[in-house]
Amino acid sequence: MNLLLDTHTFIWWISKPDQLSPNVLSLLDDENNKPVISVVNIWEIQIKNAVGKMDLNFSLDDIVETYRENGIEILPIYPNHVLRLSSLPDHHRDPFDRILVAQVIVENMTVISKDPKIKQYPVPVIW
Questions:
Q1: What CA–CA distances, in Å, run from 108 to 7, 13, 20, 101?
Q2: Among 59, 91, 98, 106, which residue carries the largest CB count within 10 Å?
Q3: What is the strand order of the sheet 125-126 is part of?
Q4: CA-to-CA distance for 41 and 55, rounded, in angstroms?
């Protein structure tokens, strides 16, 4: 199963794995599943770190490189992801969540998220 990580899931996986549910940890450890991060995660973390909303205790560059070295896919934003935004319900205005939802739909993935707003969209969500 292709698992797209929401930003908090991505951060917790690398810095606070005890914050993840046992179910999520099991899925991430299962070799039959493919964890994927989006460039959106990296972008959101960079912006929040730059404006002081997030204090990273690790280098984002190092984490991205580690993920690449370990074969974890980094999903870019494609035009069809952006085009899919126009047909999403307007549950909230968080642009990062909305593009992640569009990516999940277009790429036929499951999102790993604790965010109740993500669960309002017609996508498979696991926590």
A1: 18, 22, 23, 10
A2: 98
A3: 73-75, 34-38, 2-5, 110-112, 125-126
A4: 15
Full domain range(s) for residue 19: 2-120
Report how far residue 4's alpha carbon sits from residue 88's, in angstroms, rounded to the nearest whole number: 18
Which structure tokens are listed for 87? 């047909």
Query: In a 3-state reduction of DSSP, which class is residue 116?
Result: coil
pLDDT digits over 17-67, tens only? Answer: 999 999 999 999 999 999 999 999 999 988 988 888 887 777 888 878 877
Residue 34 belongs to a domain with what CATH number? 3.40.50.1010
For the chain, how many structural domains are there in total?
A: 1
What are the structure tokens assigned to 19, written together?
A: 């914050």
